[in-house]
Amino acid sequence: MTFFQMVLVTGFAGGIIWSLVAYLCFSFHFTAIEPNVLLEPFTVGSWRKMWIGKIVSILAYGLFSTGCALVYYLFFKKLKSMWVGAIYGLCLCAAVLIVLNPIFPGMKPFLKLDANTIITCCCIYILYGVFIGYSISFEYERSRVFKRKLERQSNPLP
Fold first, then answer.
1. pLDDT in tens, the chain (158 residues)
2. Would you list the domain boundaries of the chain?
3. Are 68 and 12 in contact (CB under 8 A)?
4. 26 Cβ contact list (under 8 Å, min separation 6)
5. What is the CA radius of gyration of the chain?
């Protein structure tokens, strides 16, 4: 698997994993934002609230997450700190809760969200950012070391 393919798989897997965590948090009432709020601007019908809506929204998070992983790959792959991923996750959280909030009719405005919802969302996005960031940066560094090792083996010093 190439490094780029690994980035795509990591992004998709991260979206699936962390959207499942978000559903779990919603089920335990840690957050008031149901993860299938993602479907509201794009779909109509009551199927969004049923099991098929949950499956489609989890897959949609996987696809959107692939885009987020590509952005991280393009701009931050050389940064080796886990804090970069955490900050990236917080920036994504701010983008969703503040900037993109108006396109999600089922989500309250940011200032009307309760503290538990905001803290839970921030925690999920921080963990998501660390997952994406650390995976991509680690694999980038590992592939660089592997390439250097191959170059040394093919061009030994006299």
1. 889 999 999 999 999 999 999 999 999 999 999 888 888 887 777 887 888 989 999 999 999 999 999 999 999 999 989 999 999 999 999 999 999 999 988 899 999 999 999 999 999 999 999 999 999 999 999 999 988 888 888 877 65
2. 3-149
3. no
4. 33, 34, 35
5. 19
